[in-house]
Amino acid sequence: MLFGAAHWAGITELAVGDRGARDYLAAHRDAITPVDCSDVAEPYDIDTEEDLGHLE
Predict the structure, then answer these.
(1) Tell me: the pLDDT tens digits for 3-52?
(2) Cα separation, 51 vs 6, whole angstroms
(3) Which residues fall within 8 angstroms of residue 47, CB to CB, at 6 or more apart?
(4) Residues 30-44: tens digit of each pLDDT
(5) Nearest residue to 13 (alpha-carbon basis) of 27, 33, 2, 30
(6) 3-state secondary structure string across the chain
(7) If exposure means fewest CB atoms within 10 Å of the residue's CB, which of 10, 32, 33, 55 is most exposed?
(8) Is the CB of residue 10 less than 8 Å from the CB of residue 19?
(9) Do 14 and 27 contact (CB within 8 A), yes or no?
């Protein structure tokens, strides 16, 4: 996900615990533009030190 600076304040208000920006995204579905990136990377979610192993 890429977020413009105009969204940061709203995201930080709703990003509680391990939910990240999920609630913000749900409330702003009309502002989401899906972009297919399946040909440029693997779909790893890097949240922990252990997840960094995917990058090696």
Answers:
(1) 889 989 988 888 877 778 888 889 999 988 988 887 887 777 888 889 88
(2) 29
(3) 18
(4) 988 988 887 887 777
(5) 27
(6) CCCCHHHHHHHHHHCCHHHCCHHHHHHCHHHCCCCCCCCCCCCCCCCCCHHHHHHC
(7) 33
(8) no
(9) yes
Instruction: Report yes or no: 44 and 51 within 8 Å, Cβ to Cβ.
Output: yes
Would you say 45 and 51 are in contact if contact means Cβ atoms under 8 Å apart? yes
14: nearest Cα among 3, 23, 25, 26: 23
Q: Are 21 and 15 in contact (CB under 8 A)?
A: yes
